[in-house]
């Protein structure tokens, strides 16, 4: 891992980290770590095994031995938990909130550290999450902290869910986003915050392409200077 170049993209829920990270990974032809997916899978595993979301004694061994594989192909990545395809199951808002509860437990975070670091392989890695630049990959070559106003993030999520045919209230999404922000930023271990050397990019009012161009300009200045 030591010599593998890493780009980190951290920020609050719905800021566009996954969208940006996937485009960066495609552009540089590097690997991609969606660390939130690991916390989401752990939340699903806890629900399957009847373990409470605040039970650190039960969750810590579950996290250490989490039987998950990410199977990538040209059409995307399938997430397999204990032999079962949970790709779609991990994407709903209930699981997002459950993930942020299990992610607040220090022993769980500790147990998942090595697994996340194992994604660092040549030619490089784009890592998306909350603590990629601060804790998991502190010596990353380029760190981005991507934000957007809570209202813009709720609107984006609303449009995403509406496109999937789901009937949701934007006020409820805004409430969930604010609650998740508070939990992620307020926890004692690896709280959501920008690394000191991160480029802070506010995507409110910016298109996906505009965000990508700004991020790429910053990263290229780090990679090729
Ligand atoms: N700049 C943008 N302008 C408008 N919509 C965007 C922009 N970036 C991303 N989106 C859309 O916003 C939604 C959330 O984006 P995305 O899933 O990438 O966010 P995220 O930060 O990874 O969220 P989470 O942390 O909850 O996984 C998606 O529907 C995505 O298509
Ligand atoms: N590095 C990370 C990544 C995620 N989390 C927690 O998981 C929740 C779900 O993440 P998404 O990015 O998929 O929405 C998130 O709310 C965080 O609580 C984390 O703690 N650290």
From TrEMBL:
The biological process GO terms on file are: nucleobase-containing small molecule interconversion; pyrimidine nucleotide metabolic process
- Please give the superkingdom of this protein's source: Bacteria
Show the Pfam families listed in the entry.
Cytidylate_kin
Query: GO CC terms on record?
Result: cytosol
EC number(s) on file: 2.7.4.25
Please give the Gene Ontology molecular function terms for this protein: ATP binding; dCMP kinase activity
Q: What are the protein's UniProt keywords? A: ATP-binding, Cytoplasm, Kinase, Nucleotide-binding, Transferase
Query: What is the main EC category here?
Result: transferase
Using the record's annotation, list all stretches that form the Cytidylate kinase domain: 7-219
Annotated binding of ATP, by residue: 11-19
PANTHER family noted in UniProt: CYTIDYLATE KINASE (PTHR21299:SF2), CYTIDYLATE KINASE/PANTOATE-BETA-ALANINE LIGASE (PTHR21299)
Name this protein carries in UniProt: Cytidylate kinase
The species this protein belongs to is Agaribacter marinus
């Amino acid at each position: 891992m030591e010599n593998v170049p890493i780009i980190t993209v951290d920020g609050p829920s719905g800021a566009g980290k996954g969208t940006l990270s996937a485009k960066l990974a495609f552009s540089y032809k590097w690997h991609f770590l969606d660390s939130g997916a690991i916390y989401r899978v752990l939340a699903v595993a806890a629900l399957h095994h009847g373990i409470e979301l605040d039970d650190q004694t039960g969750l810590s061994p579950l996290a250490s031995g989490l039987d998950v594989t990410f199977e990538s192909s040209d059409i995307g990545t399938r997430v397999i938990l204990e032999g079962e395809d949970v790709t779609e199951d991990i994407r709903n808002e209930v699981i997002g909130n459950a993930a942020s509860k299990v992610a607040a437990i220090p022993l769980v975070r500790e147990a998942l550290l090595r697994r996340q670091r194992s994604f660092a392989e040549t030619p490089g890695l784009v890592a998306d999450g909350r603590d990629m630049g601060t804790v998991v990959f502190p010596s990353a070559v380029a760190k981005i902290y991507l934000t957007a106003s809570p209202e813009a993030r709720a609107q984006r999520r609303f449009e995403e869910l509406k496109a999937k045919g789901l009937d949701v209230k934007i006020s409820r999404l805004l409430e969930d986003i604010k609650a998740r922000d508070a939990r992620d930023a307020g926890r004692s271990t690896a709280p959501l915050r920008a690394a000191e050397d991160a480029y802070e990019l506010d995507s409110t009012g910016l298109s996906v392409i505009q965000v990508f161009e700004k991020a790429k300009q910053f990263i290229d200045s780090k990679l090729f200077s």
